[in-house]
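Good morning N.,

You mentioned wanting to compare the apo and holo forms, so I went ahead and generated the holo version with FE2/S2 (inorganic) cluster. This is what I fed in:
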Amino acid sequence: MDPENEPLHDEQLPGPTLWPAGFAIGVVVILVGLIIDPKVISTIGGVIAIVFGALWTREATAEMRRRVAPVEPERREAAAAPATAAVADADSAERYPRSKFLESATIGLGGVIGGILTVPVAGFAILPAFLGQKGHRVDLGPITDLAQGQWYIATFTVDPAEAETSRRTAFVRNNGSVTIGGQQVPSCTIISNRCAHLGCPVQANGPTGAILGQKNVVEHTANGEIVLRPVLPAGFGCPCHGGQYDTEGNRTAGPPVRGLDRYSFELKDGHLILLSTYSVSHVDGTGAQAKIHKYKETGPGEHVDGWEQILYPLNPPHH
Ligand code: FES
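and this is what came out, ligand included:
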């Protein structure tokens, strides 16, 4: 019978191993990590998948490597001794079988196609979590230009490269300073106008413009671009579906699921610098004494606390 057509005996088949199972577990850990913690858990899953994948590949190609490995000199001498018929048998055994070549080619081609399809998708899904968001800084001008206790509507461009598409509005109040750990630190309330329902622009419920009789309480600009308009809000309201918030951004009525987002800030050379935004479930107290229940920035309509937060395991990047 033609040796190539002989049925494979049991001893020729690779035995079951743990490597494929370990590889599958690594992939599962990566996917779970995408939901829970892409940076840590997905990285661990990636390491598991790579290690077990490498072991699996090594084992799967062991037979092939054994066939193509050069024959050691001693073994070559030993092989030269037997009769002509035995040499012919050895040559036949060392030839690379066509079925093996087709099997390897099919697996290799499948791997290449799979990589071409999945690597870009996985890259777009995973990389943002590792790269983080581009940090923007917006200079609202000297803090002394903002009268203490007075609200201003600040409109500004977050990223000049994106021009009007990155125009944002925030409600800003200079609270003066607060004592923390025996030190006086500046306090500002800076609330985003993005509604916590579906993201419509929230507006101040109150008159805007020059506030008579108060120093500095006039509309002015910072850096020639940023407009700071005084306002006397009784709260903030959303025209889209009637969402209402108090002056600390707490939801008081309507469909929003949490309070308004806020901007973190710093003071540099006496200038008020807006940094990134964060989400807020609610705020206890007011002004400099407010206790802010803050969370990583999440999209509009997403709960950040309570049992409902488990319904929003993934938080794609937001601006
Ligand atoms: S988007 Fe503001 S209430 Fe719906």
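Residues 195, 197-198, 200, 238, 240-243, 254-256 surround FE2/S2 (inorganic) cluster (CB under 6 Å).

Happy to go through it together on a call whenever suits you.

Best,
F.
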